[in-house]
Amino acid sequence: MTARTVTGRAGRGAGRDERRLGWWLCAPAGLVMLLVTGWPVAYSVLLSLQRYDLRFPHRRAWIGPENYATVLTSVFWWDAVGVTALVTVVSVAIELVLGMAIALVMYRTLVARGLVRAAVLIPYGIVTVAAAYGWKYAWTPGTGWLAGFLPSGSAPLTERWPALGIIVVAEVWKTTPFMSLLLMAGLALVPEDTLKAAAMDGASAWQRFRLVVLPLMAPTISAALLFRILDAVRIFDDIYVLTNGAQRTSSVSIIAYHNLISGLNLGIGSTMSVLVFLGVAVVPLVFVKVFGASAPGQDRGR
Amino acid sequence: MRTGPATPGPGTRGTQGVHRARGARGVGVAKLAPPLCGVLLCGVLAGCGSGASGAPAVDLYNAPQQHLARIVQRCNRIADGAYRIRLNTLPRGADDQREQLVRRLAAGDAGLDVLGLDVTWTAELAEAGWIREWTGADAASARRGVLAAPLGTALWHGRLYAAPYTTNVQLLWYRSDLIPSPPRTWAGLMAESARLARAGRPAYGEVTGAQYEGLVVWFNSLVASAGGSVLTPDGEHVALGAPALAGLRVMRAFARSRAADPSLSNTREDDARLAVEAGRAAYEINWPFVFASMAANRPELAARFRWAPYPGLTGTGRSPLGGANFAVSRYSRHPRAAFRAALCLRDPESQRVAAVEDGLPPATGAVYDAPGMAEAYPMRQAIMDALRTAAPRPKTPTYQNVSTVTAVTLSPPRSVDPPRTLRTLRSLIGDALESKGVLP
C-alpha cells in the first residue's frame, strides 16, 4: 500500500492512508463500545431463546421463540404495556403543555429571572427515588399530609386508578422542569423581529403563538418530546417505589425486573427486556415518520 | 414481592424448633458444640481464617428481629472462639428479604453464611443449589425435638435443608362479650356476624384479604380445610379440584356477607388487629401476636379477648403455617462453623428468647414448657393443637410465582367467581410450575 504513495500520487494516497490509520486508531475504542453495548444485547437475545430458570438449573434448554409466545400471550404483559403507554402519553402531554407555560413565564419574567428559573428547576434536581418516597409517604394514610385531604379509610396507592394517577403526578412534577428548560431554549430561537412584524400585521397573542412561535420551535419541541417519551417508556423508579407494580400498575420495565430478579426466570425476563429494547427502538423511527424534517437528527437542509 | 402480594406480615414467619425434645433442657447441643467445633474446624479453617481473633466470622442474614442480637451474643459467648457470628439485618418486607438473598446467591456471593429463611423459600433455594443439605450429626441435632409441622417446612424431597427455628399458626380471635361461643366454621362466623349486625353491635370479622401473601394463606387453608391441596404432593402438578371450588365459594360468600369489613380487600395482619382493637370488629383471623398487642393497647378489652381454633368448612379448619428456619449458604467459606452457629441460633434457649421477647412461637416442642412461656403464651396449647393439623403452603421452587398469581387472581375476594376463578388459577399456577409463568 505504501507503493502508491512512494510513486508520487502523494495527495490522494496520503489522505486515504491517513483515513485508514484513523480507523485503526479508533478500532480499540470501537471494539470496547461494541463489547460493552452490543454483547449484553446479544446475550439477552440468546437468553430469551432458552428455558433458563435459576430455580431449575438442570432444566435449562433451547426452546426457540417459545418465551416470546408466552410473554406475548400473557395478560400481565399487555397490562404492563397498557400502563406504560398510558403513563407515557398522559404524562408527556401534561408536561408539554405545562412545560410550555412555564417556559413562557420564565422567558418573559422581568424580575428575579435567575431565582424563578432556579426555583422551577428544583424538582428536577431531586433524586427520583427520594422524590418518589416523598410522594409515597405523602399519600400514606395516617402519616401523609396529602392523604389527610382524602376521606378517612382511603388508601389511594392500594387501588389501581388512584395509584396510576399518583404515578403520573409524580412523573409530571419531576420532569416538567426539564421540558420547560428545553422549550425555553427553543423560545430563544424565535426572533423578536418576527413577532413584532406579526403584531404589526394585527395577529393576536394567541395567533402569534400558534402561527409564529410554534412552527419556529418545532425542532425543539420534537427533540424535547423524543427525550421525554424515551424516558417515560422506560419508567421504573417512580413505580418501583410507589406501588412496585401492585394492583396492575407494572410498567414494562417493572414487569421485566420482577420476572428477572424476583422470579429468577432469565428466559422470560430477557424476553421482556428484548421486547422493551425493540419498543424503545421503534419510538425514534415513528418520530422521524411523524415529524419528518424537523425530527432531531434529520438534516434540515434538504 | 413485589406486588403487594407475598409480604407476610409480622406474624407469618414462624419458627420451627429443632432441638431438644422434652425433658433434657440443660445439656443442649449448643453446649456440646464448642469442643466439637474446635476439633472439626482446625483443619478446615487453617487457611481461611478471618478476623483478627482468628475465629471464623459467620455472617448471619436475618429478617429484623428485635432481640436477635441477644441470641447472637449468647452464641458467640458459647462458641468461645470457634466462630464469631456477625448479625446482618435484611429489609423488613419478606419480598425484599428474599430478593436480596437470591440476588446475592445467584451471583455466588461468599459473604453470606447463615440465612434466616421464611418457610416458603426452602424448596426454591434447595432446588437452585444455593443452600446446603443438613447431614449427619448436624441434621440429627437440627431435627431433635422439633414438632412435625415446622420440620416439614425445612424439608425438600425428604432431605433437610434448614434448621427449624420458629413456627406460627393463625387462630380465631374473638370478643367473648359479642360472641359467647365461637363457631367452628366460616358459615358459623357469617351467621354470628349477621346476628350482631341485626343487633347493631360490631359485626365485622377481619381476614387478611389484601392482594398479598395473606390472601394466599387464607385460600390455601380453605382448600386444605375442604380436604384438598393446591399442588400434588410432589409439587409438580396442580391439584385444586372440588375442594378448591368449595373454598372459593366460602371466600366469595364471606366477602359478600355482613362479616366483611368494607376494607377487606385492603386488610393485612396489622389492619385486622387494629380493627378489633378499635372496637370496629367482633373477631379476626390472625397470628398470636395480636394477643400481646391487645393486652398492651386495650387492657379493658383484653379480658374478653379469647382464642379458638381456625375455622373450617364443616368443622375445625386447618390453620396456615408460618415460621422461619436457618440454612447454610452453598457459597459459605466456613460451612462447618456456619452449621454450628445455625444450630446455636435455634437451640432451645435461643428459641425461648425469640418466643418470649419477640413473640415468635418455638419450633421445638419442649420449649413450650420453658420458663416464661406460660405468661407469654396463655394460648400455647391452642398453638400446639393447631400445629398438628396446620396446612403448609405449596412446596415448590416456584412458590414465589404460585403465590403471586394466586393473590392477583383472588383479589378482590368479593369478585371471586368460583368456577371461572378456579380455571384461571389452574392455568396460571400450571404455567408457573413450568417456568412459563409470567409474574405481574
Automatic annotation (TrEMBL), chain B:
It holds the Pfam family SBP_bac_1. The keyword Signal applies. The keyword Transmembrane helix does not apply. InterPro entries: SBP. GO terms for cellular component: ATP-binding cassette (ABC) transporter complex, substrate-binding subunit-containing. Keywords: Signal, Transport. GO terms for biological process: maltodextrin transmembrane transport; maltose transport. SUPFAM superfamilies: Periplasmic binding protein-like II. One of its GO terms (molecular function) is maltose binding. Residues 1-18 have a biased composition (Low complexity). Residues 1-20 are annotated as: Disordered. Signal peptide: none annotated. It comes from the Bacteria. Belongs to the bacterial solute-binding protein 1 family. This is ABC transporter substrate-binding protein.
